[in-house]
Amino acid sequence: MKNKLPPISFPFPLDSQKHPFDMNAKGRYFIYASGFSFLAENPEHLSLNGPCFHKIKEVIPMGYKTISVNERVAFIMDGEILKEEMEVPDQNETREIFKDRSDGYTIYSNTKIYFKKYDAFADKLSKNDNWGYWDTIWESKQDAVNHAITVSEQDRGLNLLLVCRVLDSMNWH
């Protein structure tokens, strides 16, 4: 399970084959919409109100889901931080692209996580065993990292967890 990569649902950006769960891959940004996109090095390529938005709409079919643009922050497994992404030296560019619409931090898993309350599986961790979008958002990076560490200690290294900063999100109907 440790090296298992979740499937790429959306082959975008077209010039990338880099997986969000590949710790060695260059690139920090990806889209999640009930499935993963490839990594992008330039956040503008994934902006939901930028010049590439029409390409995103072509690749990711609309449906009952939320689309989010994420920045990789930390990889966690077996109660330890395996890799923590360095802060972007100049985040002014990213802030300008996304106009400070960050919703906080979220945690993805390389394998499906079981939700007892719904007897179902999902790609994202939740604070309280719910599925709602806001139940999967932490306000601080440290809170998200701490939760991921706790969960990864309990699963004894079965899952690779990826903590991300949510740069933007929108309903995708």
List the helices and strands and how they pair.
Layout: E1 8-10, E2 29-32, E3 36-37, H1 53-59, E4 66-77, E5 80-84, H2 92-98, E6 104-115, E7 120-124, H3 141-154, E8 161-171
Parallel strand pairs: 1-3
Antiparallel strand pairs: 2-4, 4-5, 4-8, 6-7, 6-8
Q: Note the main sheet.
A: 6 strands, antiparallel
Helix content: 10-25%
The beta-strand count equals 8
Q: Kindly report the average pLDDT value.
A: 82
User: What would the principal axes of the Cα set say about the shape?
Assistant: globular
Unreliable segments of 5+ consecutive residues: none
So how many helices?
3
Description:
- With 173 residues, the chain is of the alpha+beta class.
- The chain has one domain.
- It is built from 3 helices and 8 strands.
- It has helices at 53-59, 92-98, 141-154; strands at 8-10, 29-32, 36-37, 66-77, 80-84, 104-115, 120-124, 161-171.
- The strands form 2 sheets. Strands 2, 4, 5, 6, 7 and 8 form a 6-stranded antiparallel beta sheet that branches.
- Strand 6 and strand 7 form a beta hairpin.
- The longest helix is centred in the C-terminal third of the chain and has 14 residues, at 141-154.
- The protein is globular and about 40 Å long.
- The model has no long low-confidence stretch (mean pLDDT 82).
Characteristic terms for this protein:
173 residues, alpha+beta, 6-stranded antiparallel beta sheet, two-stranded parallel sheet, 3 helices
